[in-house]
């Protein structure tokens, strides 16, 4: 996105000149570049890894996704909780282990309704049988 008051940078054609993006943007995004350089120095990054690594919340080290690790192989911090840190996102929305907590009131209500219907039917048919 170009800002309206700033002219677009000159196009670069042919051999790599001063207008080539790698030179024209030399001093831009230094904070992001330093962040990625720091991430490249994290433990386990140079050794590579699987296609879907996780990263340690403490030391930024690579944690293999499969098989699931219980602790960081670099600093030993336990991998726990529902937050998993991947390269450029943190995954929080994993499915809960059980729906029982949300569903038990409906199950209890249905069981109570069944008991009430059973008692009502018993009273109705018992009364109807003796009359
Ligand atoms: Zn770690």
Q: Can you describe what's shown?
A:
- The protein is mainly alpha-helical and 131 residues long.
- The chain has two domains: 16-95, no CATH class; 96-126.
- It contains three helices and four strands; from the N terminus they run ααββββα.
- The chain has helices at 21-24, 30-40, 100-130, and strands at 54-55, 62-63, 84-85, 90-91.
- It has a two-stranded antiparallel ribbon with strand order 1-2.
- A hairpin with a 6-residue loop joins strand 1 and strand 2 (62-63).
- The longest helix is centred in the C-terminal third of the chain and has 31 residues, at 100-130.
- The protein starts with 20 loop residues before the first helix and ends with a helix.
- The model has no long low-confidence stretch (mean pLDDT 86).
- The structure holds zinc ion (ZN).
Summarize the structure.
The protein has 131 residues and is mainly alpha-helical. 35% of the residues lie in helices and 6% in strands. The protein has helices at residues 21-24, 30-40, 100-130, and strands spanning 54-55, 62-63, 84-85, 90-91.
| Number of DSSP helical runs | 3
* Biggest pleated sheet: 2 strands, antiparallel
- Overall 3D form: elongated
The helix content is: 25-40%
What is the number of domains? 2
Gyration radius (Cα, Å) is 31 Å
């Amino acid at each position: 996105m170009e800002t309206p008051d700033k002219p677009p940078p000159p196009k670069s054609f042919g051999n790599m000149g001063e207008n080539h993006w790698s030179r024209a943007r030399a001093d831009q995004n230094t904070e992001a570049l330093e962040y990625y350089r720091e991430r490249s120095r994290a433990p386990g990054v140079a050794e590579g890894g699987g296609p879907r690594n996780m990263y340690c919340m403490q030391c930024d080290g690579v944690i293999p996704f499969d098989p699931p690790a219980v602790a960081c192989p670099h600093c030993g911090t336990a991998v726990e909780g529902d937050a998993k840190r991947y390269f450029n996102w943190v995954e929080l929305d994993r499915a809960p282990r059980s729906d029982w907590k949300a569903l038990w009131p409906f199950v209890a209500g249905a069981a109570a309704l069944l008991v009430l219907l059973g008692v009502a039917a018993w009273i109705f048919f018992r009364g109807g049988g003796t009359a």
